[in-house]
C-alpha cells in the first residue's frame, strides 16, 4: 500500500476507535486537518466543543487565533505545508485535560500520523502536548520557543492559543516563537 492509502486506513481506524471512554461521549472523532506531506505539524491537547461538533481541530475561538498567528507567518491550514492535530482525538467532557490513560490509549494514532507525514518540525501547542512529546517536566513559560531534537525531528513548545485568549500579554512571546518557526522552515520546504 502507498502512503496515501496507509494514511486513509489509519484515519478510518481512528474514526471507529472505542479504545477509551471518550468514545462514548464524542460526536465526532477529530483526526486532523492539513497537508499529509507537511513540513510542520501543530499538536494541541484535544478537541473542544466546536471541534467535537465539526470534526475538525482548532475551529473555535482558540482556533481562530491560531489561524491568525499562522497567517502572520504565511501559513494556513489549507495552504499546504502544515498539518494540525491533537494528542487525543475525542473531546474530554467539559474540556477538562485529557487523562494520562486517555492519552495512552490515543497516542498510537499520533505516532502513526507522524511516521506517515514525516514532518521536519513539530510545534506543541500548550503544556499537555509539550509534556507528552518533549519532556514530562516541560514548563511553557520557561521553555517556550526552545528547539529540542528527537532523532531527525525538531520540536518546540509554545503557548496554547486558548491560554493566549485568557492572557493576551503573552501573545508577543508566542508570536516570537512563530517567527522562529518561520525562520526554521525557511529553505526547508520540499
Ligand atoms: N484546543 C486544542 O487543544 N485542540 C483543539 O483542537 C481545539 C482546542
Strand and helix map with partners:
Blueprint: H1 3-15, H2 22-25, E1 33-34, E2 40-44, H3 49-54, H4 61-72, E3 82-86, H5 100-117, E4 121-125, H6 127-133, H7 140-143, E5 147-150, E6 153-158, H8 161-166, H9 171-185
Parallel strand pairs: 2-3, 2-4, 4-6
Antiparallel strand pairs: 1-3, 5-6
Helix pairs in contact: 1-5
The structure holds uracil.
Task: Describe the model.
- The protein has 190 residues and is of the alpha/beta class.
- The protein has helices at residues 3-15, 22-25, 49-54, 61-72, 100-117, 127-133, 140-143, 161-166, 171-185; strands spanning 33-34, 40-44, 82-86, 121-125, 147-150, 153-158.
- Strands 1-3-2-4-6-5 form a 6-stranded mixed β-sheet.
- Helix 1 packs antiparallel against helix 5 (100-117).
- 39% of the residues are buried.
- Residues 44-48, 51, 57-58, 62-63, 86, 162 line the site of uracil.
Protein traits:
globular, 9 helices, six-stranded mixed beta sheet, alpha/beta, 45% helix, 190 residues
User: Could you tell me the mean pLDDT?
Assistant: 96
Helix content: 40-55%
Q: Provide the gyration radius in Å.
A: 15 Å
Reported for the largest beta sheet, the result is: 6 strands, mixed
Q: How many beta strands in the DSSP annotation?
A: 6
Give the overall shape, derived from the CA principal axes. globular
**Pattern of helices and strands:** HHEEHHEHEHHEEHH
Low-pLDDT parts are none
The number of helical segments is 9
Amino acid at each position: 500500500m502507498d502512503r496515501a492509502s496507509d494514511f486513509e486506513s489509519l484515519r478510518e481506524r481512528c474514526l471507529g476507535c472505542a479504545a477509551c471512554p471518550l468514545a462514548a461521549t464524542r460526536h465526532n472523532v477529530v483526526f486532523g486537518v492539513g497537508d499529509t506531506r507537511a513540513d510542520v505539524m501543530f499538536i494541541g491537547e484535544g478537541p473542544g466543543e466546536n471541534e467535537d461538533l465539526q470534526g475538525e481541530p482548532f475551529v473555535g475561538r482558540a482556533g481562530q487565533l491560531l489561524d491568525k498567528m499562522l497567517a502572520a507567518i504565511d501559513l494556513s491550514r489549507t495552504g499546504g505545508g502544515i498539518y494540525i492535530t491533537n494528542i487525543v482525538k475525542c473531546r474530554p467532557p467539559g474540556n477538562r485535560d485529557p487523562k494520562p490513560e486517555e492519552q495512552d490509549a490515543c497516542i498510537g494514532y499520533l505516532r502513526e500520523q507522524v511516521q506517515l507525514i514525516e514532518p521536519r518540525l513539530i510545534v506543541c501547542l500548550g503544556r499537555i502536548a509539550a509534556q507528552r512529546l518533549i519532556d514530562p517536566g516541560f514548563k511553557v513559560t520557561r521553555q517556550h520557543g526552545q528547539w529540542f531534537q528527537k532523532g531527525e525531528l525538531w520540536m518546540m513548545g509554545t503557548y496554547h492559543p486558548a491560554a493566549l485568549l485568557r492572557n493576551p500579554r503573552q501573545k508577543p512571546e508566542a508570536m516570537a516563537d512563530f517567527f522562529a518557526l518561520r525562520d526554521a522552515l525557511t529553505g526547508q520546504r520540499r
